[in-house]
Write a structure and sequence with these properties.
Layout (H helix, E strand, L loop, with lengths): L1 H40 L14 H5 L3 H8 L7 E3 L27 E3 L4 E8 L2 E4 L2 E4 L4 E4 L10 H4 L5 E2 L10 E2 L3 H5 L3 H4 L18 H9 L5 E3 L23 E3 L21 H5 L3 H5 L3 H4 L16 H10 L6 H5 L10 H4 L5 H5 L2 E4 L5 E3 L8 H7 L20 H14 L17
Antiparallel strand pairs: 1-2, 2-3, 3-4, 3-5, 5-6, 7-8, 9-10, 11-12
Helix pairs in contact: 15-16
Length: about 425
């Protein structure tokens, strides 16, 4: 009986002990949580002032998916070390060539892999672009400024747009390729941001004005010299990217002054000048910017069109547009009826007419115009031929050999079919009249 009388006491003791354990555990957890929060509050930075580059691997710790998407993009593979990545060099060095004066063993770094590949030689701190490039699609070697060594100084002519965290004076860079911080700015302050200030310590194009956002892309997709005249990329702009005006740090090429880089109509003759084209466009005036159409993180285009393929598909994958070809254009440009030239090209593509391939990518392919203007065959007639002034109609494979005069007449007839009389009020623009 005595043992039975002790049972409530034992149960009470067990309950009391359990309660103590719960209370102690709760206090311990609360203390750990408080310690964590205090540690978080010890972040050092509230803005980007004085930030330095930390490298994409640090970004990966919090942004793993974005990192993986970027790591499969052409930006990440813009520059590679052949001493580390043995598969990076895709040039055919077994092919005899009169213009290639170097061997595979001379190459330390390679630039590019989609359209063409160029080769870098490292000697001490100096890096030189070797005087020939390999064109991927044609399988040919072409000379690259063989008699102009000044144009092959990588740190002066190329580095800022092929590597991240470049210091051309010290001849150093943080990492190869166009990495996270090339577009989002140095990330050290973001890594140690005071809670609530994470946004303030890094750049994000979607939170900027249209021109500020476009200038981030434009700092590489352009042509010109910095204000000192020493560099072919805006060195000083790096410290003001996302805030300042790139014009204050860089003398951009313009159609009127630098005619060697532009066709008479104003469109770019060469690739990587998309920003200079865009600035001339109606898109620029209304705030349609690079990331409106392009998703720079994803490795390929979202295909919502069945049967998509061929060169158009390749273009979209490499350009990483948000939607495939016309689907992208028509997500903004809608119409009930197709008239005039649009009526006869409903089978075709907005891109082929308003973004014809008129800019050369070395000798290995063509890049799209980004003025989004229709390039009239009348302009070709006025300038004396397609070689002197290309147009959208002759850029089509079906009409590449059609006389521009025939194409101009066809356009006139198509327009008149939908025009009320008299036709004179709808004459072609004066600049295209003879």
């Amino acid at each position: 009986m005595k043992n039975i009388s002790k049972i409530p006491l034992i149960i009470g003791a067990i309950f009391a002990f359990a309660l103590v354990v719960v209370i102690v555990t709760t206090i311990s957890l609360k203390k750990s949580e408080l310690t964590y929060k205090v540690a978080q509050l010890e972040g050092k930075y509230k803005d980007r002032t004085g930030a330095f580059f930390v490298g994409a691997e640090i970004c990966k710790k919090c942004h793993e998916r974005r990192y993986l998407e970027w790591s499969t993009s052409l930006h990440s593979r813009m520059m590679r070390d052949t001493w580390v990545d043995k598969e990076a060099n895709i040039g055919d060095f077994e092919m005899p060539s009169d213009v290639r004066t170097f061997t595979k063993e001379d190459v330390h770094y390679v630039l590019g892999s989609a359209w063409k590949q160029q080769y870098l030689k490292k000697e001490g701190q100096d890096i030189t672009v070797l005087p020939a490039q390999y064109n991927v699609f044609t399988g040919e070697w072409k000379a690259y400024f063989p008699d102009e060594p000044a144009k092959r100084d990588w740190f002066k002519e190329c580095a800022g747009c092929h590597a991240t965290g470049v210091d051309p004076e010290k001849k150093t860079f943080v990492e190869m390729g166009i990495a996270c911080e090339a577009c989002h700015g140095p990330g050290s302050n973001h890594v140690e941001a005071v809670p609530g200030y994470e946004i303030n310590t890094i750049m994000q194009a979607g939170r900027m004005t249209p021109f500020q956002a476009a200038q981030i892309c434009g700092s590489c997709h352009t042509r010109g010299r910095d204000k000192t005249g020493k560099y072919a990329y805006p060195v000083a702009y790096q410290d003001h990217k996302g805030y300042g005006n790139i014009r204050l740090y860089f003398n951009e090429a313009t159609p009127g002054k630098d005619s060697e880089y532009f066709w008479p109509s104003g469109e770019s003759r060469y690739s990587n000048q998309q920003y200079l084209d865009w600035k001339q466009s109606e898109h620029a005036k209304v705030g349609v910017v690079c990331n409106t159409c392009h998703n720079v993180h994803k490795s390929k285009t979202t295909l919502v069109s069945t049967g998509a393929g061929g060169p158009a598909l390749l273009d979209s994958i490499i350009s990483k547009t948000r939607l495939f070809e016309d689907r992208l254009c028509k997500s903004c440009h809608t119409t009930v009826q197709y008239r005039s030239a649009h009526r006869i090209h409903t089978f075709g593509s907005c891109i082929r007419c308003h973004m014809p391939k008129v800019a050369r990518i070395g000798e290995a392919g063509d890049a799209h115009s980004h003025t989004f203007r229709f390039m009239f065959p009348q302009a070709t007639i006025k300038m004396g031929g397609v070689e002197k002034q290309p147009n959208a109609c002759n850029s089509c494979h079906r009409h590449k050999n059609t006389p521009p005069e025939d194409l101009a007449a066809f356009l006139e007839a198509a327009k008149k079919a939908d025009m009320p009389k008299p036709f004179t009020v709808h004459q072609r623009p004066k600049e295209f009249q003879k």
